[in-house]
Structures are given as C-alpha cells and as structure tokens.
C-alpha cells in the first residue's frame, strides 16, 4: 500500500478548511449550502481513506511514511497500526454522523463564524495525533486539535460558554505544558524525539528517567483523558457549547488522551504496565465511580452525559491496567477489551449526546425537572434515546454488553476482584442513572421550560437530519454487539500489534546519528 | 555553571507560574501561564547541548565527519522546538486574553453588574434551598470574590439597586441568565 496515503487524513482537512474559509464569501444566500456539501464530501473521503488504512493495518501490517524521504529520527514520521487506524475510522464515522446533526441544529450565526472549517481543523488535529510517529508532532497535533476545540467551545460568546472556555483552555494548556516538558526531558536524556527510538533507548536509560517520563505523560494524557483526580475541567465545560459540538467533544476529544495513554504505555513503558498496575487500576476504579456518582446528581441531560464520559473513560483505563495481565486468556486480551470499549464508547456516546441534544432542540431546554412527556410527542426520539442509553449501560444486544463483558472477563481472570466489582457496580449505577434520566424527561406529563416549546422536529427535513445520524450510530452499535466475536478479533489484532514493540521499532527503523555521521562525542551538556 | 543557572531559572519560572495560576485574578492567570510556558521553553532549550558562540552549521561540507567528531555544535533541534512552542503559546495566550476580556465585558458591563448579585442569591442552591436553580449557579460561583471586591454582597457601590427590568433587558439581548 502506498504510504503517502497516510498524509491524506492530515493534509486533506487542512487544505479543505482553508478552502472553506475562502468559499464562505461566495454564493449569497446559498453560501452555507456550498460549505456544507464541501465539508460532507471531505469527511466522506476521509472515511474512505480511514477504512482503507484500517483494512490494511488490521490484516497485520504497519504503514510508515517518512516525510520527504528523510530517514527516521531526522524527519517527520507518520505511522499507522491497528490501534491508530481503528481510532482514525471511528473519528471519521463520528464526524460524518455529527455533520448532518450540526447542519440541523447549529444556528446560522455560528455557521457563519466558520463552524465547518473549525470541525475540519479539529479532525486534522485528531488524525495527526493518531498517526504521529514522534513525540513533538504528537504535541503539535494535540495543540491543533485543542486550538480548534477552544474556538468551537467558545464561538457564540454566551456567558456560560465564556466561563467554561476559560477553565477548559487553562487546564488543557497546563496539561499540554507538562507534556511539552516531558518531550524536552526525553530529548535531553535520550537525544531523540522519535517514538520508536525513544522506546528503543528507554530500555537502556536510567530508571529515574523512565519513572519521570512515565509520570509526566500519565499526568498530562490523563488530564486530557479526564481520569480521576484531573477530570474536573470536563463537566464544567462540555455542556455549554451547542449539542453538535458536544457530540464531537464527548465522543472523541477525551479519547485522543486515552489513545495517547495506550500508545505511550504500551510502547515506552511496558514494564510499568506491571509495576504501576495498582496505580492504574485504582485510578480507573475511582474514575468510574466518581463519574457515575457525579452523573446521578446532575440536574440536566447534558451535564449527566458529560459525567458519564468520565465514568466510561475509567473502563478504558481499566483495560490499560490489565493490558498484559491474565492467566488463562490470550496475551493482549486486556488491551483488546479496552480497545473494544473505546470503539463502543465513541459510537454510543456520540449517539446519546446527539439524542440528548435533540431533546434540547425540541423542548428549548434540557433540565430534567422542567421537561417531560416527550415520548407521546416524539416516539422515535424517545426510542433512540432509550436504546442509546441502555447500550451505554451495557444491556445485551448492543455493543456495551460485549465490551463490558470482555473487560470483566480479563479482570476476573487476572484476579482483580475489587476493580471487577467496582465495574459491575458502576454498570448498575449507569443503568439506574440513564433509566431515571429517560423516565424523568421522556415519561410523565408533557411539559417544557419556556413559554413555548420550539418543536423544531416538526419539520421533516430537520427530523431526518437530527435523528438519522443517531439511528445510524445505534445501528453500528447493534452490529458491533451482534458480531461481537469478529470485532473482538479485530481489537485483539490491534492490541497485539500495539504490544509488539519490536515490530513497531522495526517498522519505523530509526537509525542513530552516530551510525550515519560517524562517531560523535559522548558526555554531558557542557 | 551555565546549566545550574538555567536549571534555577526554569525552577523559579515554574514555581512563580504555578503560584500565579492558582490565584484568582484574571491578569495573574495570564501572567502565570506565560511564566509556565517560558519555563517549559527554557527547559527545552536546556535539553540540547549548551554551547557558547558555536553556530549550528558546518562551514566545511567536505570534512563533515571530521568536524562532527572534533568540534562543538549548538544543537538546532531544541531551537526549532522552542520556536514552535512559542508560536503555539503565543496564539493560546492571545486567545485567553480575548476570552478573559470577553468575560470581563459580560460581568462588568452596566447591565450585568447589577444583575450579578440577585442572580448569585437566586442561583445559590444553598442560600435558597431550591435545587432547580443549581444549574445557573456554577459559572456565577466563580465571580463571588469579584462581587466582594466591588462592594458588599447585595449592594452596589453606586447605590442603585438592581431591578427586574434589567433581567428582561438581558433576556431580550439574548443572554442566557437561567
């Protein structure tokens, strides 16, 4: 397969975002239509490329692109393996699903402020982060993604958005600075930023360097993934932007942090997956528990859902915690379960947030105390919300069940009774919380918060734009649940690839500068 | 010696930045973030070899290997990294300043200043015991100390009491004052 394909998911959104900014001045009243169609076609191409990459990598290959033909540690390396390709595909699917929802629900003001170029830049940042083969590019793409998300979060300038935006920006900036400092320390101690070469040299490095880097990366990525002590920025900001933006953020943004954790711990610190296991598992358990307890106490649908994101991230971290553990099951079962959970979560969470957003659009508010009885007026919306909610909680025919079951299997197999118990309890609490949410807002007497419910879903086009993507994502979730074995096989391939460090290093094949340019002097920094 | 000075500078910048970020003031927040990013930039700078007066270029291309083995070089990579990091932190700082200015405009404008206190009291679930107001409380809670700074809780320094017309005007202007 042509490795240049790897540049497409990064270059295509970048250039089309620029193009969209240009055409935003053309076409009079129709100018939004042009932008929408362009964005949709770009996202479709992106999905095709992602699927092609996934098809190639999940048959056991890695695809490496050395930009400009520079050999590994000197140039920019892009690498796709199974894990990266899976996430690339999921991001493409969610973006393509959210686009019609956004067309239906975003107000014209925000559309004119460059909504479509911004989501393309967000996509570019995510794709770049998944494909980055060196630590500094990972940082840069994180920042590209965050910059786009800052603007998406605050565009519109409502007071609540501005307040949430400040917290979000500050906390993400601090996490990024910790990451950047870790990259600096990696370069200072190991003399390289190429991830494969870092993995190679970390084995020979001083143990203190390993511990320091692992700790800094764990704090930084953990903060971006919203794990237990560092999650507080998420519930205070995610409910403020429009529902379409929240669907993108909730489905994908924190998962980039989870991906970075998966990647860095399997590639750089495989030993810490064993020695730090109590830490990782307790963080996972606390994240699950705190997230779901927070969700149960929230007054609005979207706040509840943003706390659920935290709780779900806990499950993925649990998968990381037992990544190489297990007695009877195949190696990599734990990480595969984590990856499967990641896939499930991205699909279902976006669907659920869009369904919750549809409620807000329909009723003019989403505070559970002041809405009710939607089922009578909008049976389809009610059904979709319910199905997404039980899928999130892990009820059998949907994808939540197999992903939670496989996580439970591996935790029981590796005899972590406590975290297994916590995950079961949290599943029950999640079910309770979403059922309560559904009963309160969809059942009972029909009531709405304002003087008049907007009832936007009366318009048939809008109904399909808003509910179509939710139904599509739920269909995917159902397919994932029904073909559980097949998808678990895919996740296992990706997990084994991610755990195969020697293969990764060999694929990138970094050379040391000494071997290229002759002997260099050893020694300190003076 | 050079490394020691650099290390101490980085440490001081980190300490001051962390302290300032944890303060409540908005300008202090921006300054703190600036100091933190300067600290990280200097850390990146120190990750290369610290050489004095050595350019990161080879004068003589033919004797590349000999020069590499015998001469000291400035490492160009950290400089490139710092340049990127500076651009990124510059952009984010500019964005932060706009955001904070925007918040200042919202909370300090003629309309909202009077609105803030009744909203605080109304929105405070602990003061009124109304659970359904808990949602509006969240972002306003951040401003409590600013209200204290401006005057006593519940009264404005200019003696004007806020009335309900302001709230209606706010709603008309499209502010979400729930």
- What's the main sheet of chain A like? 2 strands, antiparallel
Q: Hey, roughly how much beta strand do the residues of chain A contain?
A: under 5%
Strand arrangement, major sheet of chain A: 1-2
- What's the mean pLDDT score of chain B? 68
Shape of chain A: globular
Assembly category: heterodimer
Fraction of residues in helix of chain A: over 70%
Q: Work out the radius of gyration of chain A.
A: 23 Å
Q: Report the principal-axis shape of chain B.
A: elongated
Number of strands of chain B: 0
Biggest interface, CB < 8 A: A-B, 43 and 47 residues
The low-confidence runs of chain A, each spanning 5 or more residues with pLDDT under 50, are 517-526
Question: Could you give the order of the helices and strands of chain B?
Answer: HHHHHHHHH
Number of domains of chain B: 2
What gyration radius of chain B follows from the Cα positions, in whole Å?
26 Å
Give the count of helical stretches of chain B: 9
Are there runs of chain B of 5+ residues with pLDDT below 50, and where? 109-167
Distance between the termini of chain A: 46 Å
Class computed from helices, strands and strand pairing of chain A: mainly alpha
Query: What is the chain-wise order of helices and strands of chain A?
Result: HHEEHHHHHHHHHHHHHHHHHHHH
Question: Whole-Å distance between the termini of chain B?
Answer: 59 Å
